[in-house]
Fold:
Amino acid sequence: MENRKCELIVALDLPTLGEARSFLEKLDKATPYVKIGPRLYAMGGATFISEIVKKGYSLFLDLKLHDIPNTVASAVEPLSEMGLWALTLHTSGGYEMMSRAVAMRDRKGSTMNLFGITVLTSLGGNLWSEVHPGSDLDTSLEARALVAERAGLDGIVCSPLDLSILNGKAGKLARVVPGIRRTMALTEDQTRVATAVEAAAGGASYIVVGRPILEADDPIKEVKSILKELSEVK
Ligand code: C5P
Structure:
């Protein structure tokens, strides 16, 4: 693998297991990092996870767990035995929820990274204030990152626009950054977006890219072109 300071995670947001399998075949580990979300997990479960892990991919299961601490820890127990590279949970679940998840992962002797969602990249402007009246997004973002660090998480998931707000804060945590677009045109549901190069230059450790790759005319060419761009970021 080339020496990149920011790695590419492909979000396998495809409708069927078959399409995900054939994408992975074509990807041929150009990047080893792939992510599946609740849809493919619901369809393929532990068997599908084990199939991807056996192919040699670093698999990121994006379940965004958010529940009482006991329930989250009890889900982390079997998830720690699946050979996953990473799992997500919501930092808004609080310190106890996150630290119990970390303790369970450690008790199982797993190396699975636990990444905390700070604020969803889709939750810009009014969508944020509607559900957090009187609260400032940037202040919440910083507070959540600091609690995630104290709870022992390995990284946080944040928008590219949040990287500068967090600059120098919660420094132990990897920055996992979705909301990547080819141009700054605002499309679909992502509102807080940037390009791959901007995110990498801004301090992302990993970028997560779904639709810009999956909907490209030649998705594998797109992967390679993003990897090349990332390798040129100093
Ligand atoms: O298609 P797109 O590139 O927008 O995909 C982004 C991926 O990152 C999706 O799989 C989405 O679930 C995920 N994600 C996100 N915002 C977060 C956490 C994860 O968009 N805060």
Observations:
- The chain has one domain: 7-231.
- The mean pLDDT is 94.
- The first helix runs from residue 17 to 27.
